[in-house]
Amino acid sequence: MIKENMANFTTISGFLLMGFSSKPELEILFATLFLVLYIVALVGNVLNITTTSVDHSLSSPMYFFLKHLSLLDLCYISVTVPRSICNSFMHSGYISLWECILQCFAFTLCGCAEMAMLTVMSYDLYVAICLPLRYEVIMDGSTCVHGVLAVWASGSLAGVMHTAATFSIHFCGANIIHQFFCDVPQLLKLSCSNEYVGELGVSGFLSLVAFMCFISIGVTYIHIFSTVLRIPSAEGRARAFSTCLPHLSVVILFVSTSVFDFLKPHSESPTVSDFLLTVFYTVLPPTLNPIIYSLRNKAMKAALRKIFERRKDFLFF
């Protein structure tokens, strides 16, 4: 089996990633749009990481998890978009086998870890709203660190499983991937036979785990909303809802875009619309997440304002 896999690796030097358009001017236009979105994601997530690290008023577990979510978003979008931008400007879609393996691993790691992080953050919100008197005892520093380590470990395990199952099959044909990154469904189309059954088993297992995470988040929010609705004061309910809304918005954005792409029919010859649908779950969540948290969270807005004011005073000084 090992010899067969080694033979598989040695016979394939790389793949050809297809861009959004065969017309150079349109390819440059899409690359420019990607560049703008990437810069927005880069600035937003770096600001979130910096703000939650520098401002001591944002030292609660919620902002500790938010910092790691922003780090995940930064990695998630950096896995695919910069390479796609370079390919478009250079008019070359070639990617080597090992680069494709690394991209597949990193993309799966970040995607699965993000789902796990959103689940951990929902539990933090549950404890904060439903068990406020025990919050500091339950969500202590050790629990937060272990939660983040579990997130990265689960993402790494999913990445290893998914990548190993995908690249254990034999590829044949033109080795053309009709996507702007090494997308697993497109890779499976290059299989010489039905060797991808094992990969489908791994994908099914990871999908089941992701579904369980989603159910866990849903049950958590049922408890949260039932608790919030029992708060006697309107001000208290509004404060509780304002705490939940950014996280809930991020969950809905990430899950809906992923499920939408998963359920949509995959054509044999992908169109521009198919590429754009993929952008929904690969580019939009990491770009919009920091904006959602910054605009909906008063503490984050206040902390960002203080950082910019210090920066302005420093420049004038």
TrEMBL record:
<keyword id="KW-0716">Sensory transduction</keyword>
<keyword id="KW-0297">G-protein coupled receptor</keyword>
<keyword id="KW-1003">Cell membrane</keyword>
<keyword id="KW-0472">Membrane</keyword>
<feature type="transmembrane region" description="Helical">
    <location>
        <begin position="100"/>
        <end position="123"/>
    </location>
</feature>
<protein>
    <recommendedName>
        <fullName>G-protein coupled receptors family 1 profile domain-containing protein</fullName>
    </recommendedName>
</protein>
<keyword id="KW-0552">Olfaction</keyword>
<feature type="transmembrane region" description="Helical">
    <location>
        <begin position="241"/>
        <end position="263"/>
    </location>
</feature>
<keyword id="KW-0812">Transmembrane</keyword>
<dbReference type="GO" id="GO:0004984">
    <property type="term" value="F:olfactory receptor activity"/>
</dbReference>
<keyword id="KW-1133">Transmembrane helix</keyword>
<dbReference type="InterPro" id="IPR000725">
    <property type="entry name" value="Olfact_rcpt"/>
</dbReference>
<keyword id="KW-0807">Transducer</keyword>
<feature type="transmembrane region" description="Helical">
    <location>
        <begin position="275"/>
        <end position="295"/>
    </location>
</feature>
<feature type="transmembrane region" description="Helical">
    <location>
        <begin position="62"/>
        <end position="79"/>
    </location>
</feature>
<dbReference type="InterPro" id="IPR000276">
    <property type="entry name" value="GPCR_Rhodpsn"/>
</dbReference>
<comment type="function">
    <text>Odorant receptor.</text>
</comment>
<feature type="transmembrane region" description="Helical">
    <location>
        <begin position="28"/>
        <end position="50"/>
    </location>
</feature>
<dbReference type="GO" id="GO:0004930">
    <property type="term" value="F:G protein-coupled receptor activity"/>
</dbReference>
<dbReference type="InterPro" id="IPR017452">
    <property type="entry name" value="GPCR_Rhodpsn_7TM"/>
</dbReference>
<feature type="transmembrane region" description="Helical">
    <location>
        <begin position="205"/>
        <end position="229"/>
    </location>
</feature>
<dbReference type="InterPro" id="IPR050516">
    <property type="entry name" value="Olfactory_GPCR"/>
</dbReference>
<keyword id="KW-0675">Receptor</keyword>
<dbReference type="GO" id="GO:0005886">
    <property type="term" value="C:plasma membrane"/>
</dbReference>
<feature type="domain" description="G-protein coupled receptors family 1 profile">
    <location>
        <begin position="44"/>
        <end position="293"/>
    </location>
</feature>
<comment type="similarity">
    <text>Belongs to the G-protein coupled receptor 1 family.</text>
</comment>
<dbReference type="Pfam" id="PF13853">
    <property type="entry name" value="7tm_4"/>
</dbReference>
